């Protein structure tokens, strides 16, 4: 297993730890000092795995599968925690999760046909903006002004979620039509 794939798997391992910190650390103050750094570390692995894979020609079929899956799981966990903390409206989470399930469904149909669909640039922008917004919202205890900025960046990520979802569907509708 190459380094980029190990980084993606590391990101998957951080997710349960991230959720456990939220639910098991009784002091909100201590939780705040752990949640943001965990999410930042996990988000940095997203940048690093892609950069290393492309730079060193280490792109694999497994990497094309695990990288976007790890991103989805990380973002889903963070959005649900932000909902529970009452920092993010539920409708944002519903839109983002719906798009992720639809895209995952299309990817599963493609895999059934022996095809792997890599993440698009628009999807990467969506993920990056959502992750940056989440980081800022998790930094509220340090700098409260980041909450509003982070929320607006998550809204941008939500808009990109809808746009990239439509783009993804249009570009891959032939896969869906062939499977019917």
Automatic annotation (TrEMBL):
Query: Which Gene Ontology cellular-component terms appear in the entry?
Result: plasma membrane
Membrane-spanning segments: 6-25, 73-97, 125-143, 149-170
Superkingdom in the source lineage:
Bacteria
Q: Where in the cell is it found?
A: Cell membrane
From the UniProt record, give one GO term of the biological process aspect.
phosphatidylglycerol biosynthetic process
Q: What does this protein do?
A: This protein catalyzes the committed step to the synthesis of the acidic phospholipids.
Protein's recorded name = CDP-diacylglycerol--glycerol-3-phosphate 3-phosphatidyltransferase
Q: Which organism is it from?
A: Candidatus Xianfuyuplasma coldseepsis
Which gene is the coding source of this polypeptide chain? pgsA
């Amino acid at each position: 297993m190459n380094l980029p794939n190990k980084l993606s798997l590391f990101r998957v391992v951080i997710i349960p730890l991230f959720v456990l910190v939220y639910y098991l650390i009784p002091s909100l103050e201590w939780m705040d000092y752990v949640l943001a750094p965990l999410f930042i570390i996990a988000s940095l692995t997203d940048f690093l795995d892609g950069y290393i894979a492309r730079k060193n020609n280490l792109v694999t079929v497994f990497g094309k599968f695990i990288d976007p899956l790890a991103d989805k799981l990380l973002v889903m966990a963070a959005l649900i925690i932000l909902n529970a903390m009452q920092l993010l409206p539920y409708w944002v989470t519903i839109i983002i999760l719906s798009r992720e399930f639809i895209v995952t469904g299309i990817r599963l149909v493609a895999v059934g046909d022996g095809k792997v669909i890599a993440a698009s640039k628009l999807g990467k922008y969506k993920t990056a903006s959502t992750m940056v917004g989440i980081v800022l919202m998790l930094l509220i205890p340090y700098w409260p002004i980041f909450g509003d900025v982070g929320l607006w960046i998550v809204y941008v990520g939500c808009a990109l979620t809808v746009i990239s979802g439509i783009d993804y569907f249009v570009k891959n509708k032939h896969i869906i039509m062939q499977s019917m």
